[in-house]
Description:
The protein is 24% helix and 29% strand. By secondary structure, it is an alpha/beta fold. It folds into two domains: 2-198, Rossmann fold (3-Layer(aba) Sandwich); 203-295, Methionyl-tRNA Fmet Formyltransferase, Chain A, domain 2.
Amino acid sequence: xxxxFMGSPDFSVPTLEVLHNSTHSVEVxxxxxxxxxxxxxxxxxxxxxxxxxxxxxxxxxxxxxxxDEFEILKSYNLDLxxxxxxxxxxxxxxxxxxxxxxxxxxASLLPRWRGAAPIQRAIQSGDEKTGVCIMQMDSGxxxxxxxxxxxxxxxxxxxxxxxxxxxxxxxxxEMIKVVDxxxxxxxxxxxxxxxxxxxxxxxxxxxxxxxxxxxxIYNTVRAFNPFPLCSTxxxxxPIKVISCELFNKKTDKPAGTxxxxxxxxxxxxxxxxxxxxxxxxxxKKEVSIKDFLNGNNIVIGENIxxx
Length: 307
């Protein structure tokens, strides 16, 4: 089959690779446009763009599908469009171009966690399971009929990077199965019950609210690793909290009180305690609490809530 691929981040790369290595032909790849990154603001193509260049597949970067872009896509005479984390909403006229339509790999068990950040929101909400759905795309936001589903456990210590890396491989594995069998797929409408939306992550969410329950703080720290990373203030300076643990004791101290420096224990709003295990100062590498204490003092009894 003649296939077009649409994707942008590193999550999408394994699916592009498995399609390229299959008996099908990837005729064109669409990604979001290259953007400035880093301190030097150098224009950098996204991971899928870089991979497509390495595989010698033509790459296009439209920001929207006007009449000209529509005709260009149509000229490829595609049998199927495969979409994984493209980041641009496709109009119905694009979905109607390929012979077998457009299919999308989405990192959740739909209809739970439609939208932009399903991996992070699943961890933040304390979900014990998530997975991947391959769906037939329609004009809604992740509302299409489901073709294939694969469930994955979320372990209690798993962060978003670890879950992301697992799900991107599962997505590729499930996608090639569907593509190989596209003429004989079965469609299952999504349930009207249990619909949730995974809003994209905002940096202003990353400041730890110590008045919350310890389990909520713990889940958010895991969910926001590696981006945007949770933060708090220690000695009136912003510090990134890379990882933490639930501490099996209670306290009557106010939320945000530092109870100990090694281990670094902080009181939460429900009387439970968080043990911060790794920190990162601005512009520095992440370090253990032991290494952090080599050059920094932590005042036991200080309250870092809204500090």
